TrEMBL record:
<feature type="transmembrane region" description="Helical">
    <location>
        <begin position="26"/>
        <end position="47"/>
    </location>
</feature>
<keyword id="KW-0472">Membrane</keyword>
<keyword id="KW-1133">Transmembrane helix</keyword>
<protein>
    <recommendedName>
        <fullName>Membrane transport protein MMPL domain-containing protein</fullName>
    </recommendedName>
</protein>
<keyword id="KW-0812">Transmembrane</keyword>
Length: 59
């Protein structure tokens, strides 16, 4: 999860640099942290729910 968020953020930072705009590294770090924490909190329950639906034949 962290790696995926870091790749997306890295691409966004490269585009920002190429456009000549200033980098907001603090904002980027907070965005990376928030994405990782929210993803780690939400993905396991969603996967569990999906597996239950598949087991019941509803997905």
């Amino acid at each position: 999860m962290l790696a995926a968020a870091a790749v997306v953020l890295g691409v966004r930072l490269v585009v920002t640099l190429l456009d000549g705009r200033p980098l907001d590294l603090v904002g980027a770090g907070l965005s990376l942290l928030a994405t990782t924490v929210i993803g780690a909190a939400l993905v396991p329950p969603l996967v569990h729910h999906q597996r239950r639906l598949v087991h019941r034949g509803r997905a």
